Amino acid sequence: MKMEKKPEVYWTLLSHEGWSLYVAATSEGLCFVGSQDHPWDELSAWVSQRFPGSKLTQDDARLQPYVTELIAYLDGEKDRFSIPLDVRGTPFQRAVWEALCQIPFGQTRTYSDIAAQIQKPAAVRAVGAAIGANPVLICVPCHRVIGKNGTLTGYRGGMEMKEVLLSHEGSALRV
Description:
Layout: E1 9-16, E2 19-26, E3 29-33, H1 40-50, E4 56-58, H2 60-74, H3 91-101, E5 109-110, H4 111-117, H5 124-132, E6 145-146, H6 159-168
Parallel strand pairs: 1-4, 5-6
Antiparallel strand pairs: 1-2, 2-3
Family: Belongs to the MGMT family.
Keywords: Cytoplasm, DNA damage, DNA repair, Methyltransferase, Transferase
Protein name: Methylated-DNA--protein-cysteine methyltransferase
């Protein structure tokens, strides 16, 4: 019986002009972007759940390309990401996350829009659950999803972070 090798997960703390969040990557790509001002425990618990038994190692140099691109986005110099991602989820979750990546910078979509886009129009709640499980905040732009009536809805990073990101992108919320 062949044992699957557990990937090492590397992390750093992105701290830039009021932003403070943990980011992590495997050798395959960025796998986690944390919530604004959340403690180390958010990353540690996520790794324990998603990569049980994996070693978690601080490696600022290895994470620098990811941090550089995130900072360029936060500074308004970039509106899309080219860094490799290592997002692991069910086929349904991955379909939802891919749909999120197609929402243009500065625009929003509803949960119903995403459900229709992945050809599962009755799966609005499941779409919401998949969005809530998005491990790579900002890069997979779940902050661009709003309620059907145009209101802001839940966000793993917190509502304040969602509002800041939408404002940063100049999103005009639908009402």
